[in-house]
Write a structure and sequence with these properties.
The complex is a heterodimer. Chain A is built from 13 helices and two strands; from the N terminus they run ααββααααααααααα. By secondary structure, chain A is an all-alpha fold. Chain A has one domain: MetI-like fold (Orthogonal Bundle), CATH 1.10.3720.10. Chain A has a two-stranded antiparallel sheet with strand order 1-2. Chain A is globular, with a radius of gyration of 23 Å. The two termini of chain B are 31 Å apart. Helix content of chain B is 36%, strand content 27%. In chain B, strand 4 and strand 5 form a beta hairpin. In chain B, the strands form two sheets. In chain B, strands 6-7-8-3-9-10 form a six-stranded mixed beta sheet, sandwiched between helices. In chain B, strands 2-1-4-5 form a four-stranded antiparallel beta sheet, with helices on one face. In chain B, helix 3 crosses helix 4, helix 3 runs parallel beside helix 6 and helix 4 packs across helix 6. Chain B is α/β, with parallel strands linked by helices. Chain B has one domain: P-loop containing nucleotide triphosphate hydrolases (Rossmann fold). The longest helix of chain B has 14 residues. Chain B has ten helices and ten strands. Chains A and B meet through helix 8 and helix 9 of A and helix 2, helix 3 and helix 6 of B.
């Protein structure tokens, strides 16, 4: 006769395995679903006409999303220009200068920042940033620069927490070795600690980019959603995510498939970013 | 003999634990002085007072004084960063920075503002030669210092310290993780270097201290038990504790 406790142990283990694998299953299903819906249009219209097409008029058979790809990259780079220096400085301050009490105050604040829903960021952007840009810089205010500003703040928690981990994990011996050679604190930071934490810091930027490129709600509220490649930082633009969110509610037929194609492109971009970030993190561990 | 480093009734405690109990010692210029004693005897802590690395510890209280060339180094007006350029340190575990061999040695001089390529090249070559490492690495100065063997890394750290042109070199158990051949190379280098520098060698290895030091100090539980010429300490120690330690009865 089989021992009942042993049986129970096995049961618990297999139930946990099943639950653990379910997340993998969901990922796989999402992947299949988006590809199944998105790929047919690529075959029908042609990859070139979608990815490099300049005109998006899905009801008339034009599915060009090139302006949106460019726009997505522009807001992401804009967000990085704002978020990277701010986030890295904050991480350096936290890991190298802040005392225990400041750290205890700042770290929860940063985690809270990560938890604020994006619609709130969008709301604040519409109420404050857009009018400010409109009155001081011109244009409608719904623009590349407004979107970059808001996204720059939104990606701060990602950049700060991952860079912070990378900086903190630089061995104490490096700091001591550098100090013993007469380096000042700042010299040690920029000549030894930042170079040692480089791959982790890069990974934080890339994951921040992933967050910025995937952000939807705040973006459609602030970006203006115009269908062209912006020529100035004050021009409105429409991102890949924004395109899907704005039109899915009423899209049918090929139009709907066009939105899935947008999703396929977005997914590929994010997969590449994640892959690059993981590569960076792995290299850090290997060292 | 001329005194280079001196401490006067130096007491140091971490919180409530007293680690150094009224240490008074005079270290002579251009000699190798060996600090020996079982772990916990305070010898490494004494070193960290001399290079002010003690600043990185929390909860430290220091009484008494420590001087270099008669000037107090515990005084508030002393800049610890300036001090560490005069007092070079080689640690127990070699810690090359994750950079090339060349950059590791050029690091200190660059911090001081030396940027001229030729000067740096001369300095790097000269330091590596003095540390007996030049012949092994001269063809690959651009490769990462982390690729060197443990013994080579330790000599690199010695070279890096020499490039600072310090007056004093502190070595905190520099050979504890090294094979006998690497150890011998470091010892040879140190014996050559003492004409230019004042060297303090902290070591658990009494034989090493006997081999290369001119003066020996024996520490035990935060106290300086005995301090004399190496010959005297090793042939006719005044204290039985010293004798027991040297003979390996404890420690």
């Amino acid at each position: 006769m089989i021992d009942r406790t042993v049986l129970k142990e096995h049961l618990v283990k297999w139930v946990l395995v099943a639950f653990a694998l379910s997340s993998l299953l969901f990922l796989f299903l999402i992947f299949i679903f988006i590809l199944a819906e998105g790929l047919p249009l690529f075959l029908k219209v042609g990859v070139n006409k979608i990815i490099f097409g300049m005109k998006w008029a899905p009801t008339k058979g034009y599915f060009g999303i090139f302006p949106m790809i460019i726009s997505s990259f522009l807001v992401t780079i804009g967000a990085l220009i704002i978020g990277a220096p701010l986030g890295l400085s904050c991480a350096i301050y936290l890991s190298e200068y802040a005392g225990k009490r400041t750290k205890m105050l700042l770290k929860p604040a940063i985690e809270l920042l990560a938890g604020i829903p994006s619609v709130v960021f969008g709301f604040l952007g519409v109420i404050y940033i857009v009018p400010l840009v409109r009155s001081y810089l011109g244009g409608s205010g719904f623009s590349l620069i407004s979107t970059s500003l808001v996204l720059g703040v939104m990606i701060l928690p990602t950049i700060i927490s991952i860079s912070f981990d990378a900086l903190v994990s630089v061995p104490r011996t490096y700091r001591e070795g550098s100090a013993a050679m007469g380096a000042t604190k700042w010299q040690t930071i920029y000549k030894v600690i930042i170079p040692s934490a480089k791959s982790g810091i890069l990974a934080s930027f890339i994951l921040g980019m992933g967050r910025a490129i995937g952000e939807t709600m705040a973006v459609i509220m602030i970006a203006g959603n115009a269908l062209k490649i912006p020529t100035s930082i004050l021009d409105p633009l429409r991102t890949l995510t924004g395109n899907i969110a704005l039109e899915l509610a009423y899209a049918t037929g090929d139009h709907r498939l066009g939105l899935f194609s947008t999703g396929v492109v977005l997914m590929v971009i994010i997969m590449i970013l994640n892959y690059v970030a993981n590569f960076g993190i792995k290299r850090k561990i290997a060292k | 003999m001329d005194t280079k480093i001196a401490t006067d009734r130096l007491r140091l405690s971490f919180g409530k634990t007293e680690v150094l109990k009224s240490i008074t010692i005079k270290v002579h210029r251009n000699t190798i002085t060996g600090f020996m004693g079982p772990s916990g005897s305070g010898k490494s802590t004494l070193i960290s007072v001399i290079n002010r690395m003690i600043d990185f510890e929390n909860n430290v209280r220091i009484e008494g004084d420590a001087t270099i060339d008669g000037t107090s180094i515990l005084d508030g007006s002393i800049n610890p960063i300036e001090l560490r350029r005069r007092v070079g340190t080689v640690f127990a575990v070699p810690i090359p920075l994750p950079r090339s061999i060349f950059e590791n040695i050029a690091y200190g001089p660059r911090l001081k503002g030396t940027s001229d390529r030729t000067t740096l090249h001369h300095l790097v070559e000269d330091s590596l030669k003095k540390a007996f490492l030049w012949d092994e690495v001269k063809d690959r100065l651009g490769t990462s210092a982390l690729k060197l063997s443990g013994g080579q890394q330790q000599r690199l750290c010695l070279a890096r310290t020499l490039a600072l042109k310090p007056e004093i070199i502190l070595l905190d158990e520099p050979c504890s993780g090294l094979d006998p051949i690497s150890t011998a190379k470091i010892e040879d280098a140190l014996s050559e270097l003492k004409s230019e520098y004042t060297i303090i060698l902290v070591s658990n290895n009494t034989k090493q201290i006997a081999r290369i030091s001119d003066f020996s100090a024996f520490f035990y539980l935060g106290e300086l038990i005995e301090y004399d010429t190496t010959e005297k300490v090793f042939t006719a120690p005044a204290e039985t504790k010293t004798e027991d330690y040297i003979q390996g009865k404890f420690g």
